[in-house]
Amino acid sequence: MPIGVSRLDPVVGTPVGRSALGDVLLAWSASPPEHRHDTGRRLMRELARELGAAASVDIVSVCARCGGAHGRPRVTAGDIAVGVTYAGDLVVAAAAPHDIADEIGVDAENEGADAASPLADLAPLFAPAPPPTTVGWTQIEAALKADGRGIRVPVGDVVVGDAVPSALPGAVAVTVPGRTEPVHVATWHGIDGLAVSVAIVASSTAEP
Questions:
Q1: How far apart are CA 184 and CA 205, in angstroms?
Q2: Which is nearest to 183 in space by CA: 160, 150, 206?
Q3: Sheet of 183-188: strands edge to edge?
Q4: pLDDT at residue 208 is higher than 60
Q5: Interatomic CA distance for residues 111 and 124, integer angstroms
Q6: pLDDT digits over 62-76, tens only?
């Protein structure tokens, strides 16, 4: 899907951008801090409906460990994986059908003039190896969100590997400790100044 603006957000009045990475749909919009959670929910609902969910679909979050409302987002109906991330005032959502992805994660970071340089602030987390670049960091973060354990996994043990055949065009294999299969991650640069990485746990029902 080409990059485009589909409409204005009905609450905050900012343009909603749309694109796709293969069969993974993307939507984004700027939002004031006090509205960004709700904006993310609206974007995920819209993507879920586009993938066949009922008009009444909603997004819920339940922590698998404590039952709190801060776990990964889920649709209330439909075989669809959704994810959301925030970068400054921008909200980015992603969605994919379960025949493509059992789980999905998305991460975004602003890219500065030194985007190709290692992120020195992260050096203690990766020593003695060099820290990742901005793109590498978004790939690690997206993979951990798709994995579901997040910061409970030591980020320095996550390995970004080589290109891999995937439903995500341009994906690389990211090895996450405790998983038998790599997470597939692709990075997209369709929003000016932003690196967006999308990660999928490949569907267990996908055709070989």
A1: 16
A2: 160
A3: 101-110, 194-202, 183-188, 172-175, 159-163
A4: no
A5: 21
A6: 877 777 677 889 999
